[in-house]
Amino acid sequence: MSQVQLQDDTVVETNRPGGQLPTNPVGQKPPGLWTTAGKKFMRNPYAVSGLIVLLFFIGIAVFADWVAPHDPAKVDFMITNLPPGTEGHVLGTDELGRDILSRLIHSSRVSMLVGFSVAFAAVVIGTLIGAISGYFGGWIDTCFMRLVDVMNSIPSLFFNILVLALFGAEFIYMILILSLTSWTSVARLVRGQFLQLREMQYVEAARAIGVSHWGIITRHLVRNAMAPIIVYATLMVGSAILSESGLSYLGLGIQPPETSWGLMLSKAQEFMLVDPLQALYPGLCILLVVLAVNFVGDGIRDAFDPRKKKKNPKRRLNKWNATSSK
Amino acid sequence: MERNILEIKNLTTCFFTDDGTVKATDRVSISVGKGQTVCLVGESGSGKSVTSLAVMRLIDYAGGFIQSGNVMFHGQDLAAKDLDEMMHIRGNKIAMIFQDPMSALNPVFTVGDQIAESLMLHQNMSQQDAFKKAIEMLRLVGIPAPEVRVKQYPHEMSGGMCQRVVIAMALACNPEMLIADEPTTALDVTVQAQILDLLRRLQKELGMSILLITHDMGVAAEMADRIAVMYAGTIVEEGTVERIFDEPRHPYTIGLLQSIPGFEGERGGELYTIQGTIPSITQLPTGCRFHPRCPHAIDKCRKEEPILREVVTGQQVACWLNEDVSNHFRNNQRANSIAGSKAEVNRQ
Amino acid sequence: MTEYLVRRVLQAVLVLFLITVVSFGLMHAAPGGPLKVMLSPGMSPEAQLIQMKNMGLDQPVYIQYMKWVGNLLKGDLGNTFKNNVPVGDILWPTVWNTFVLMSVAWGLSMLIAIPWGIYNSTKQYGLSDQIASIVAYLGFAMPTFWFGIMLQQYFAMQLNLLPLSDMYTMGKEGQVSDLILHLILPVTVLTLVNIAAYVKYTRASMLEVLEQDYIRTARAKGMKERRVIFRHALRNALIPVVTIIGLDLPTLVAGAALTESVFNWPGMGRLFVEMAVAREYSVLMSITLLISLMVIIGNLLADLIYALVDPRVQLGRKGGRAA
């Protein structure tokens, strides 16, 4: 697995006596890790366009009531299955005469809410457990890691289906169970980081000057493990959105009259013969949002990865091809 | 003296980076005679390893290329050959050993497999013969119970043992030229001496030439016939081992010699260090590349880059003030002789 | 070696025990229970009690669990509440159907993805590599069931080329040619998703290996580039790839639940969804157990393969592969 290196490698040795080197202006502070990463992120066109798309969907979700042209739940049997382009209904209507565009817009709320709250909850749980496990080690670590093993032995989709089918397909249950099945990867990541970091000198130094366990965990370790956690959290937003759509498609997620992209898809499949385009839009929305989230996540990862700035393998390869086919 | 087996002439190599191509070495010239050992000495980042990779044309796989210059080997220019032709030279006529023996061996094959591989390729040996030869080679490099070792995997051996295997592998096809890139750096001091002894013995027995790359002046003193000192991608001084140790002329060489512990003969004194660090190849100073760190730099050094020229027979130096400096050095450190330095190294 | 196996089996039993306890507990903690589904609303309380006694639901949960384990050890998976059918009769055919679908999809994705990944590692950022990365991005971001629906619409509804769903056409059960036609769409969906991941793994693993010192050594020995890649790099690169793919397998089987639902494939995943809604505890427990068993066996197999191809790993010895 690629490890995000946390030391700022732009720091060069400074203040050698008499060493007036052109490479090394004395006294100038090197730019911080976060500033450098931010600049790098903004230079990445994929990451920026992903961010724009994501912000667009967040905006639509927040202002759905104002943006949507119609009430998404308004049934009108006079105008069922209107084709796209009909006046007043840009994307047409579904089998109950509800405006598809409005339903798409309102569905983005569910996706955003599920995506972000699951990612947040999973990161909180995972970081906490991973941190405790990695920091203290010993039997606490063993217990937690067995728990992670057990969690990982049940494919999460099955677990989600089981819980939602048994306890009822409530929105809050869905967020809860999705969080409970996705924290393990964060916990493993954080634990790994901690195992590595706690051996480092500055943590020993902190311990030596009497900083408390809690202080060390929050001050030193969590802050240092922050970058990979953020990357993970971003990617988790995407996978939670996908899970929600799958569960709703199976009838175990969002229940009518509420609406979500997954639910729209399962209805659209029933009416495939009548209106094949209905199945296209919700899927495209999911694809676009998840793609945007993944671009952002990859962008953050690359921005924090110091290795990326070394060589441009493309040019190197062109040269190599040129010489080898001489 | 016999004709040179390897002649590197004005070799300039570049690497691709995000900021365009960057010169890693600039007009490097070194020659190696038959049966000779030439040491290429310098700090890390000075371009020694790049030079060795360029000779093997392995630089083509590492993101770099030879921009200009020649690598003449038996009258053929290796720099102009295509990679297919190089395959017959690599491992066959010129072999190479690397710094970290543990990672230089493929973990999933037995050492016998790895030695036999080049024999089967370059000498068309059958697998059986190649294995017999592999055992022979292991015996040659002083590995006990070679019949057992040949079937073992690299992780079952110690670092020194691995380096012996790497040497056996390199010498299997009886190459005329061996390039050794820091062959002892990753090893314990006692093992280092053993490996150097082994290289010397094998050189005598097999009559090959060695280009030895090292950052350690002590190793150079022990092994070299000639020494070339590299700094920031160029050769700053070149000459026979006696000339370099007796009468170094470039301030950088002098600095390197003075920073060997115990070289100045007195104990308890402060260790000599060269101030500053080696400049990055992307930000070279103007004029002489060493002038920001040079205690004797004059105005000319900041403006014009000195070229390598012969000052006495068997010694070339690239410095604007070489006469003065070496006088200065001679007067202060008269007492030191090359014998002293060798004794110091041998004591390790 | 034997010691290692014994330890692993004991670990596996412990994990299985925990999983079954958790699932069993979860089922019985759920509000309503099977009665809600089973009993007709008009039943008298006495009749309800008798019904519960018949189903063994009046006993404490731990007794029910022990009974379940006891029967399991005798090879009895229990009967369904509805119609009282033995679970095995329902379960085993679906296991086979899932196996057919998954093995075809999995084999196909490996056959395509591994060579493709190797090729891309040697021609980084070439056209093929860029296509692969687009496929990867789409594969990771697309709801697979939506992709299935789109394929259905185009190839089954509009072009009328391929069957829309199910495993066999009515009346043609058991015909291989008919099965193949029905396999094409779901296999395409599953393969695309798998390829997206596997090409990425293979490429990354190859690239990492190609940077290693021993590859430089092989080149310094004068090996041809082809031999460097296929002999020296590939074996090292495939070790982690095979492990990851092996570990992924059960997740794939579970993930197929959605694809099976889209294409109405009579497999285990779809059965699980149906039975979860119907609260058929014995079927759910059996499937959960089966999948967990697969995970554990998959883990063990991955370790064994690892030890087989990587001489550095010695099973059962400390300092081997960190779990």
UniProtKB/TrEMBL annotation, chain A:
Keyword Transport: yes
One GO BP: transmembrane transport
Keyword terms, alphabetized: Cell membrane, Membrane, Transmembrane, Transmembrane helix, Transport
Record SUPFAM superfamilies: MetI-like
ABC transmembrane type-1 domain residues: 112-297
Topology class, membrane: Multi-pass membrane protein
GO cellular component labels: plasma membrane
Main location group: membrane
Organism superkingdom: Bacteria
Ranges that cross the membrane: 46-68, 113-137, 157-181, 279-300
Pfam families: BPD_transp_1, OppC_N
Listed Basic residues bias regions: 307-318
UniProt cross-references to InterPro entries, sorted A to Z: BP-dependent_transpt_permease, MetI-like, MetI-like_sf, OppC_N
Coiled-coil zones: none
Compartments, as annotated in UniProt: Cell membrane
Stretches for region Disordered: 1-29, 307-326
UniProt cross-references to PANTHER family, sorted A to Z: D,D-DIPEPTIDE TRANSPORT SYSTEM PERMEASE PROTEIN DDPC-RELATED, OLIGOPEPTIDE TRANSPORT SYSTEM PERMEASE PROTEIN APPC
Family: Belongs to the binding-protein-dependent transport system permease family.
Protein's UniProt name: Peptide ABC transporter permease
TrEMBL record, chain B:
One cellular component term from this protein's GO annotations in UniProt: plasma membrane
Subcellular location: Cell membrane
PROSITE patterns xrefs: ABC_TRANSPORTER_1, ABC_TRANSPORTER_2
Chain ranges of the ABC transporter domain: 6-257
Name used for this protein in its record: Peptide ABC transporter ATP-binding protein
Keyword Cell inner membrane: yes
Family of this protein: Belongs to the ABC transporter superfamily.
Membrane topology: Peripheral membrane protein
Alphabetized GO MF terms: ATP binding; ATP hydrolysis activity
GO biological process, one term: peptide transport
UniProt keyword annotations, A-Z: ATP-binding, Cell inner membrane, Cell membrane, Membrane, Nucleotide-binding, Translocase, Transport
Source superkingdom: Bacteria
UniProtKB/TrEMBL annotation, chain C:
GO cellular component: plasma membrane
UniProt keyword annotation of Phosphoprotein present: no
Any one Pfam family match given in the protein's UniProt record, by short name: BPD_transp_1
Keywords: Cell membrane, Membrane, Transmembrane, Transmembrane helix, Transport
Coiled coil: none
GO annotation terms (biological process): transmembrane transport
Positions of the ABC transmembrane type-1 domain: 95-302
Name this protein carries in UniProt: Diguanylate cyclase
